[in-house]
User: Fold these one by one.
Assistant:
Number 1:
Amino acid sequence: MKVYLDHAATTPLLPEVLTYYSEVLRDYPGNASSLHYEGQRSRELYNWAKQKIADCINADYDEIVFTSGGTEADNIALFGYLKATKKDRPNRKKVITSTIEHEAVIETVKELGEQGYDIYFAPVDEKGIVDIEYLKDNIDDQTAICSIMYANNEVGTLQPLKEISQLCREAGCIFHTDAVQAMGKVNIDVSDIGVDMLSASAHKFYGPKGVGFLYVKKGTPLEPVFYGGGHEKGLRSGTENVPGVAAMAKALELVTEKIDEKRDLYSRWTDQILETCKQLEGVQINGDPENRTPGSMSLSFSGVNGEALMGMLSMEDIAVSTASACSSHSHRKGGSHVLSAMHCSEEFINGTIRVVTGYDSNDEQIDYFCDKLVEKVNLLRRLSNG
Amino acid sequence: MAERYSRALMKHFTDPQNIGKIENSTLAATGFNESDGDGVKFYLKLEDDVLKDVKYTIKGCPRAIAASSFTSEAIKGKTIEEILQLDPKKIFDELGIDESFTCISMPLNAVKRALKEYSES
């Protein structure tokens, strides 16, 4: 039995999405920018996908910019906004983010620091919730943009976005959120949150890899960060990926309909896995137990190396991920920057695995995983205790 | 997994040899990675400068576990002099791991360091 529990890394295409994707690849060969009949058919489908995506997050059609994924969307949002406002708002030099962002934002912000912006990394508490007091102290009339992730990719903690957007609004700065880990797992309403820009990636919600989108609230100044044929209002030049966006729209439509149903199912499995962990001493559950993406678990085991546990589970056809990479290698990063920011001990960081259930999970798989988890943790602890 | 971990490494990782402790060992050898708390402790039983028995306990990544298992087999029955002559490169080659992973050489280095101190004392 294959047990895939790494749905925060990527998700398999839903069968309906795969069928639809294949059909569009076959039946819509035209370039959506061509004016002939094949091009127009592709354009109509492209526009349908854009409207569908907009509907799913309560946005308008022309507020969606298709991209190649989350990283590109984050880069367009941050670089594009600052480029567009550099001359008109020269005093706004502050860029604020958090210590637990995905590298797509952290590395982008570091580059902005190299370019002369004043960059700030807001700390988080032990649950992974960003320090609102820090944001209150630092978001001001010098701030250009604040980017705080919707949900964390390692521990699943959801951030208080409405509160942050209020702070940004009061200070007159732009609020961007990387929603890659939240899209399709929680209901997202951009108007309700009050966010100015939001990034998402299709392969995290059972769509294809290599496609994503950026929501850009009407009136938000944005300039291209790379150039070409002027597609997507010039913000993302490059031939339109019609099959990709159509499949993404189909996937988001399907998962959005099932968010509540899946939340209840995942909650039952999460309870079962956490109950299993109680059989093992020296276990820490990371993140906010009350406020995280459904099905996401970050589990730390004392006396165990996370990579070894992942490897042992993989030998049993169970796929999970680890937050720790072997720090003995000069070119590899050590433990998780997220867990470090959450003040997790080195012992626990080193012994962490991430388990994320998904659409293809079932009761039998979760039972099997629970049995193997206990077996392998005990085995690795025997190796370390003799 | 398949690309990063060789067959030889997986064999030692999933079925590590000589795990345990020796009650009346002649000396112990420890290797420790301060940055993440991983480490290995070898128990060495010597008779007339020959390593008659070896056991170890380990908390580490798959490479460190495999390297400790491989090392334990490579040193068992050898003289101190022979063990001190062992080249860690042999372990890297046998396990198919490039030499930038220090966790592979950590077990042998720990044993050699302890035996050198023992010989000189």
Number 2:
Amino acid sequence: MGEALHGIGVSSGVAAGPVYRVAAPPRLPERVAVPADRVDVEIERGAMALAAVVADLNRRAGAADRPAVVEILRAQAMMADDPVLRDSVTELIRAGADAAHAIDRAFAAHREAFAAAGGYLAERVADLDDLRDRAVAFYLGQPMPGIPAPGRPFVLAARDLAPADTAVLDPTTVLALVTEEGGPTAHTAIVARTLGIPAVVRCPGVLRVAEGTTVAVDGGAGTLWVDPSQADLDALMARDAERQERLSRSAGPGRTADGHPVALLANIGSASDLSGPAGDAAEGVGLFRTELLYLDRATPPAVDEEVATYSAVFAAAAGRRIVVRTLDAGADKPVPYLNHDVEPNPALGVRGIRLGWRQPDLLQAQLAAISTAASRTAAEVWVMAPMIATAAEAARFRDYCREAGLVKAGVMVEIPAAALRAESILSEVDFISIGTNDLSQYTFAADRQCGALADLLDPWQPALLELVAACAEAGKAAGKPVGVCGEAAADPALAVVLVGLGITSLSMAPRAIPAVREAVAAHALPDSQRLAAAVRGAADAIEARALARRHGAFHDPAR
Amino acid sequence: MPSRTVTVGSASGLHARPAALFVAAAGAQPVPVTIRTGDKKPVPARSMLSVLSLGAKFGTEVTIEAEGDGADAALDELATLLARDLDEDSEPAASGG
């Protein structure tokens, strides 16, 4: 098979197609003196560049179907279509600038005002930069930065993908994602798994592959083949079809090879996430995120609306266990009516349950609504709080739950302090669930949004697994369940390690369940325990993976 | 010059959705309209970037001004719009879309 590039597979599956890159933002060229008789032409070119950006955004808004995306794109179009902006570009060109520099400077004036205003406006600075880059790219005759639109299904290659890029990704045209940077918990991986398309991250060389070249991507093995022969492609696809077929037949509760149960649960945000065969595969819901009900609105939801929403989700859970996480707002998920102060460091600020302590009426109203909905359903409803740091907080949350009539109360472990004191936390509550994404961020002091720190955020980091082990041991001593509901649970090989550490349930995007079920079932508990012990002793994440490979955790029966 | 001073009624302030609705309405008027907060420099109401830069929040007092034929009618329409909670109003449209 042609040249092979290797990275970390973060979303399994095989896909092949022409590769196209997310175009890099243009560099401003050297200043050009515009001759007096060309000034009007230059003004026209500047206006055309802005108009092209507006037309492109409106075209994309017309093609998008999610209302939130349409609204974002239309608002951006209005910013690029601004008469004041157009006038200042014209004036700057009359004063001697070429259109590229005039556009840059016209945006810079607004950029400064936005940045100075702070809060919501400061966050829109990236939008202004994007609009400027698009206009300058058009003027220079370069492709518009952002997701390409080659007009046929393609494999998307990028240095890394930002949330803004992925908000408009269309899974019917994007066959696979391959990034040169990023990491297993970065945004790219999460989006790919949600969309159910193969993805490989940290794949050096992918940006050197010429655009339009056919590539094949194996998102499980983490391999990309450049220009494979038809025969190789056919063989690869046949092997993947076989794997898909085998996984689609896999069913039933999670079990190790020697019959120890490991609950395989779904992470969901709404009832629709549980629909279809993917949702049916779950033994229950390990994480129901309730943020959707609170975001994008001016006032808190009414009690009736809250009860109705929860009832619909509980009905979809159809008698299975469902773990509801109370509102996890703040940091990257601001809610206007929650009176967020401007925080220099929102991930370390008043977020999650800390907002609940500040506005207990809102937390109590939510728990009451969950309790009302729970009383009308056959589903087994558990409740947990995000961002718990101490046993005292866990006890306080449990008291709120009991007051509301909720029987099973637990907490998320995302803060290292909570993991280290898992035993005292478990003496207060009925269960814990480890959010590995935030636990990584706080353990390694590495911002989840920061692509350059992806190495530290790798869920195979032994220090992270050490904290998971501490929680699992505390759970075993207390005889209480300890689950994992972060991205780590969706990695089949790592799932085997987690089981070996003593984790009792794994919660993930529903599509990831069959592959995890297969991996867990391929190992007897003592094997998993030996593997877990070896991985805990590894020097770093790379060695941890290598050890797991040697132990056969990456074993794929189809190969 | 005819003017109106109103309190912004949108819960999220003159941002995002409310700003877009206001700017579109201002652009549709037969006369140019300006908007300002306090004694600051008035900016064109049909400029999305300028209106956003005001940073007007829920409860901020803003003054709109216009001159010429139809100025009063234009100001009345825009003042009514500013005073409404445009986040609330647009919700049914968003969920129906």
Number 3:
Amino acid sequence: MDTNSVNKEDKFSKLFFIAKQEPYHGCEDFSKLSFTVQLLNIKCLFGLSGKAIDTLLSLLAKAFPQGNKVPISYYEAKKFIHELGLDYVKIDACLNDCILYQGDYLESTSCPTCTTSRYKDPNKKLPHKVLRYFPLASRLQRL
Amino acid sequence: MTSQIAIKMRWHKDRKIKDGQLRHSADSITWKTLDSKYPSFVADPRNVRLGLASDGFNPFGIMSPSNSIWSVVLVPYNLPPWMCMKDPFFMMSLLIPSLTTPRNDTDVYLQPSIEELKELWGERCSDI
């Protein structure tokens, strides 16, 4: 077995484990995963702010029975969902759409065609433009 | 892929009605041209064909034209017509930040997508 498939299996057993966790002991209708996914779905549907979710989660954590495993903040919830693996890649782009800073240009700080700087502020490394790329293969597999 | 969707992904080959009427992209001339060009690709009904569409939208409402984003969406054309144009099956591929149409510069942004498609060409789902 090559390392790739070992990694895949590792990931799968991890997913299986987190899917089985329950938000609080004795909860039959939800797993921690389905609870978090549905909560974040509601957030997207109604455009709730991150802070609203933070507050709601801290209330739920207090209201649910002792020893519950509800994610304590929006950040924690996102980190938990991250394990599902359908995330995206951020690639910096030239301000004038000349190149993407990937491959040979990964470390460059200015565009080779129009010499524009990659960053708004070179000290803070804040890029002008960021392309979000959603890898296709994992999405096809999850269809 | 779930078993039901895996069956539906072969719909373009297994569909019953093939009377020359244009009901699905699989009836189109372009589709058939591709068939004749790559017989080894077509031989396996599990081949995947994707359509690419792009449009601009404004993430923060119409009043803020300073934040315009162009999304690129991939549509699996294997699925029957009543499924392939429904949102659960759309696959967002790219989010391009651009105030106006990226026009020809779109190809710069499509690079990562094209690279992955080239990689996937000729591979099986289980090989990935």
Number 4:
Amino acid sequence: MVKSLLIFYKTEFKLAFREFSGVLFGIFLPIGIMLLLGILYGDKLAYENAPYTLLQQSVAAVLTVGICATGLMGVPLTLSGYREKKILKRFKASPASPLLLILAQFLNNMTYAIISSVAVVGIAVFGFGYRMIGNPVLFILSYGLLMVAIYAIGAMIASIAKSEKIANMLCTLFYFPMFFLSGATIPYELMPKGLRFFADIMPLTQGIKLLKATSLGEWQTDSMNAIWILIFTAILGMIIAVRTFKYEYES
Amino acid sequence: MSKIALEVKGLVKQYKDLTAVNDLDLKVEAGKIYGLLGPNGAGKSTTIDCVLGMKPYLKGEITVLGLSPTKDRKKLYQRVGVQFQSSFYPERIKVYEICEMISALYKSPDDWRGLLKQFNLEAKSRHYVASLSGGERQKLSVLLALIQKPEMVFLDELTTGLDPKARREVWTLLKKLNQNGLTIFLTSHYMDEVMALCDEVNIINHGVSVASGTPQDIIALSGMQNLEEAYLYFIDEKEMIHGEVAFDIL
């Protein structure tokens, strides 16, 4: 499995690079947002006498844009596209398991998300003087957990959709509310109370809260809840994705 | 007693109101080349799909290399190669990349570079699959079915799109592999191909077997001169024999 996974990953990575439109979105959108926020926020404090700046508060959220673009668009759209074009049919008559095909997409998209994150942090550090207050190891672990949870949702969308068209629709349905309401683009702190309740239901919101807590060194009581919600989302999403995986759409 | 590579008993496959395969029996001896013939829509590809566990079926018993295609899928696919009637690949994948991917799925695969050479595709190794000609793509799909050094291979319309020279190259290669013990199950619309390759054939029409035996048996049974005429006779297209339709129209 490891050998085949590495070869599938390597090939999928090259295919995604040749395609480039998806890569462009996953890598450059977060970079663009980071540049914009850096210019807008400068070294403004998050609030009066706050121990951190607006930029320090926002970097974590910007990183999740890349995770969402790759996990909620890249993973499901590639898998459902392969299924629609009957590319996966060949693998049905081979020892390739659904898990192998899903994980190859995970690794491929994760690589692009990580490249994007490294670029975002690089711009924040060297362009706008960003320094992480919290523990970087805890932050990286939280980032990894959020990534797995979001990718599991993406894989689940790809598996449960009965056609590429439905997969597209579901991606939009999951992606845009999460993108705008979870704090990835509009800071959670600026949202009205009613909207915050809706945002709290989304795993991405929990992930952003966790990333903010670890990056700002403000471990809060609900940080542990966020970890459990993300673990639960990751496990449930993967179980559904593998169990309902189809190699071809019913005609 | 010879070993049986594939045995199908009473296979029934239905699509809503259509019975695609109806009470079909097949027995393929190990080391033989077996041809499943029939017009388009006769149930050949559906039979292959059922035999390989790709599609559920209503009734019947299927054993491939002593394994059940539904219960022992992973074990079976290590030992069986498949070339589907139509093969599809990611848009920007190169020939060597798809070979690497398929090869990585098996425990002890063949050297795919050697296979590319045997199929005269070596020079195309770094080309995009999408840029290959129809014949080259067909050869590639046969090659991919052989990559894991299978004991049995299923080839659905194996030489469709190939020019006469390429067809003969593929036949020679398959004959060689067969002499080394590979059992081949194929479908084809070319009767010269069936005559050149098959030890035994089974003609099906509307999902029902209408004649089976060696190509010579089939010809003798029909009372016709050659396999093509025998085939037309058995699929109930007697008027097509000797070009009588053309004669009538004229």
